[in-house]
Amino acid sequence: MTAYRVERRLEANPRHAALARIYGAIIAMVVAGLLLLLTGRNAFQIFWEALDAIFGSQRGIEGVLLRAIPILMTALAVALSLRMKVWNIGSDGQFLMGAFAAVGIGIHMSGPGWLILIVMAVAATAAGALWMLVPALARAYWDVNEIITTLLLNFVAVQLVVWASLSFWRDTENAVIQSTKPVPYTLAGLPGTNSLTIALLVPLIIAAVLWWIFRSTTTGYEIDTIGGNPRAASFAGIRVRFRILSVMLTTGGIAGLGGMLQLSAPGAQALGPGFSAQFGLSGFIVAALAGAAFGGVLVGGMFIASMFFAGLVLQTKGLSVYIIFGIYGIILTGVALGEVAARYRLVRQDILATERAAA
Amino acid sequence: MVSNQSVTDSPATPAVEARGISKSFGGVRALDAVDFDVSWGEVHALLGENGAGKTTLCNIFAGIYRADDGEVLVEGIAHGFRNPSQAIDSGIGMVHQHFRLVETMTVAENIHLGWPETPKIISQAKLVERTEQFMEEIGLHVDPTAKIWQLSVGEQQRVEILRVLARGARVLILDEPTAVLTAPEARELFAVMRQLVDGGRTIIFISHKLNEVLEVSDRITVLRNGIHEITRETAGATAVELARLMTGEETHLDVVHREIDGAIVLEVNSVTALNDRGVEALHGIDLNVRAGEIVGIAGVSGNGQTELAEVICAVRRVESGTISIDGEQIANRSARKVIDLGVGHISEDRIATGMVASAPVTDNAILHNYWGDELSDGLTLDRQGVVTFAKKLVETARVQTRSVFTTAGQMSGGNQQRLVAGREALVARTALIASHPTRGLDVLAAQEVQTSILERRDAGCAILFISDDLDEVLLMSDRIAVMYEGQIMEVFNRREADRERMGLLMGGHAVEEATP
Amino acid sequence: MMLALIENAFLSLAGSAIPASTVVVLAATGVLLNERVGVMNLGQEGLIGIGAVYSVIAVSSWSVGSPWIAMLVGMIAAAVAGLVFALFVVVFKASQVLVGLALALGGIGLSNQLGTNRNGTPIQVQFQEVNPGGKFDDNDFFEAFLFHEPPVYLAYIVIPAFLWFLLFRTRHGMNMRAVGENPAAADAVGVRVTWSRLGYTVLGAALAGAGGAYMVLSFTPTWSPDIARGRGWVALAVVIFAGWRPFRAVAGALLYGGMISLGVTAQARGWDLPSLEARDLAFFLSMLPFLVTLIAILIPAGAAKIGRRVRSTAAPAALATPYSREDR
């Protein structure tokens, strides 16, 4: 009779860890569905209906993709920093600041559309990077934990956007709306679609570039090494501080660019208090779920975007959008527990005996 | 003066007894059905190599681990200690190699930590008073108001001992206590041990140092690979016999030493440097190493060896002085520059600074050469080439792993060190800094590492070999420098080396003081 | 005349700052408790929300008449959430960052969901201010500093004092601090690391819940979505700024409250700065608490790196690291 024992390892096999995270998320969702069942709402059925609505029509698919763009941008940003074990909780703030800068350019400058859009993109990226500057310097030079610093700046960004949309950039022509004037420039549409723009290509390109960087360049190797063991990295001659700074600024830039891209989404040309529907948080969850693997981020991003969409459907059935937050929380917990589970393995007692004999 | 009294009147019931104790960690058998007993009023040495199971067995006595099989008896009564405080209640206290002290708290606080007898309401003054009183009774003294991080290692150890005694430990387990002490401090410790044993207590003294064991113990037990080899009276035992029991065979490396006439490769001039606490750790070090020569640095850990290796490899600032490799100044330049000059570094703590435990073997294999022409063109990294390189390295260095994609942290310590040492040997064209390269390794792995270092010597590298194992230093080095408190006490040729003299120097006594 | 104006402004500021910061003080004290034993709980926002919503439920659905009982209900609800968090993080050793964020999200979601039908409806049961009336009524000074609801006194004086005494003048407190600094050392001398971490995390969560309860039972007497409004995160920052010491945390929280009420007062009194309208000033001031907290965190870190390391304000050395006896 073979007995089993649970044994603990110090390091998890990355492949096991990835699978475990996914299983954790799936189990979490089932649990969430069961909990909802207890409140009398059949979430599984609703989810199924939502899936049908999403993938059953071009409109549905486009809706999900539209939703996915900002989430993918923040997710990629967070994933990049996560490779270095830097927790960028502030991608929302960087996203908003990117939009802020882009709006500033867009409503005050005039000229040929393509040129203005380029300037907006550059300004947005720079603004996002700048928003990361203080946390990046604090982390690189003073070892200040970036969780709280980036988080606090999130709130500052939110307040700044509120201020701008209600005060100095307010759309004074339209008394009802509480937002800035709309930006008259949008990106070119994607041929073959009704509502998508070329913005969709940006996260795909960035993901591909990031994937290439980490697979085939020394820079990517150095970043992974810093994430794995910063001291060993410095002993290997890697300029750790410089890398931390440059990577953190880059993540800010990516998130900021996401903000600019979002301005081209239908109905979102103006900046108002509700501009970011927790994209930063969703992006963080995607990055955590994917274990900072960029291909996984793309998949996870699509998945979360679908959930978002499903959430809208759920809203029509009486569930508030806050249920989605709750589900996110449960998923994150499932992922965290999955990571723990990956460190354990079941060992058969008879295998132990053979190992002993061989020794 | 310490004496070996043979124990003539051992009481029938042993103080502590282990019967059939087995313990495994993650598939590795640390202890295999070990029987072991200790009598009252004796110093009992537990001897064995690294990984023999000595610490594991004692951790089980002390309630830190739970045995998978077997039982522990205290005065004939079986106990299944679930945590350290249960063990302490039964009178067993352990002083570990790595101290379990809270650095930011004072001596008085640490002694009173977790102790039911501490009054419920406390103040610094009251704790200090109680501590002083207790120190009077036992006869050991440390400044009770000092914070632990301010104390020397020897003093910290004394705090650990006091703490355990305060709780009424009658069986005291000391795990490699002299590893961090200077020779005079070790002598003091032995005197204290005798004093405590004469007072009726029992001491289990874990060590791998034969001479100490022969000097201070009454009985010796040898463990090897988790198995109980033998228990015998110390009187009449010889070092050779014990060594054979510890290692299981007579293995030795034949090291041929030749005349050195190569050019000076590594030159260290009047180097001063600070340690992590901002205290000066190197005071004007002068040292040079020639091509094809091994210069050994002997000394107890903590006398500046770490900092010396780090300044040479340019990961620590030099406050004053110069360091050059092949004539090129490297003090305060970049670590990358030093590696590019062909300097390999087997760092003293591979997990902390030598490798990335969470990364696969491939990534670790290229850690110190990934930017070179072989694998990169400046921006890109040839992943295929990396795999090939890693496979070659694994084979050359005899790393036992099923695949080069295994996570490095999952390999055994010996294999990790084989990987790191093999990697550094490849990097080392001009020089190799080997810092405690065989620490924690079993005999076979240690010999392999030593062999690869000797190969580098024969290829013309200048080698700096740092170790706190005097026998190893004497074995490998052509010249030996003794370090004490951040200074080179003396450098001499291996032929002139004399253990007695070196021991004194390691303890800080200048040679003039040695009475013939 | 000028002096009187300034005094008047200062007192009115103090009077509104103190209640405004009470939530932060309570949550920060809770954070201090669990971080001192080495557990970092990022889920404060969620805990405040849970405490708030369950107090509201207690009053409106369960007809609880006393604000104290309602607060207790909120505290218990938050403590339960804290227990689940502690279980995952201390016993299963899951990532404290991930599970903490999950708690923040989940707590916000849960509380907002439970509170959806109660937006804007006033909560009948409230804490009453302490006011002996009579000749003290006209005194501005007393108004500012003494006539507050009882929880304020608990939060600002009683609890921090008790905590200070517990941590620094009792055997138990010393053992707890050791758990946060070096759990292996504490374990070696028989301190129950796991139980300590579990217990203090639950207590800390209960305090955050008390903060949430106070919000709806006094400060803003109705429910609204996102009731915590970032105060949970600020509490986390305040503890860092305070060097993990109870009274400094109170000071830090007051700083935060001071900024908030500065903004509110400015708007209410129509203060203008040249070139900034009162409304714009209010917007600017709403950013200020977060910016100031940010700077407040950076100062000790910078000082530590630039000057000598000031050990007394360093974090508990084992913060956020799981402990397992066989990990060596």
Number of domains of chain A: 2
Strand content of chain A: under 5%
Q: Order of strands across the widest beta sheet of chain B?
A: 6-7-8-3-9-10
Which shape of chain A, going by the Cα principal axes? globular
CATH architecture of the largest domain in chain A: Orthogonal Bundle
Mean pLDDT of chain A: 83
What's the CATH C level of the domain at 264-353 and 427-507 in chain B?
Answer: Alpha Beta
**Average of the residue pLDDT scores of chain B:** 85
Give the CATH topology of the domain at 264-353 and 427-507 in chain B. Answer: Rossmann fold
What overall geometry of chain B do the principal axes of the alpha carbons give? globular
> Which percent bin holds the helix content of chain B?
25-40%
As a percent range, the share of helical residues of chain A equals: over 70%
Biggest interface found: A-C, 48 and 49 residues
Number-wise, the strands of chain B total 20
Number of DSSP helices of chain B? Answer: 17
Please mark out the parts of chain B with pLDDT under 50 across 5 or more consecutive residues, or reply none: 1-10
Radius of gyration of chain A, whole Å: 22 Å
Looking at the structure, the CATH topology of the largest domain in chain A is ABC transporter involved in vitamin B12 uptake, BtuC
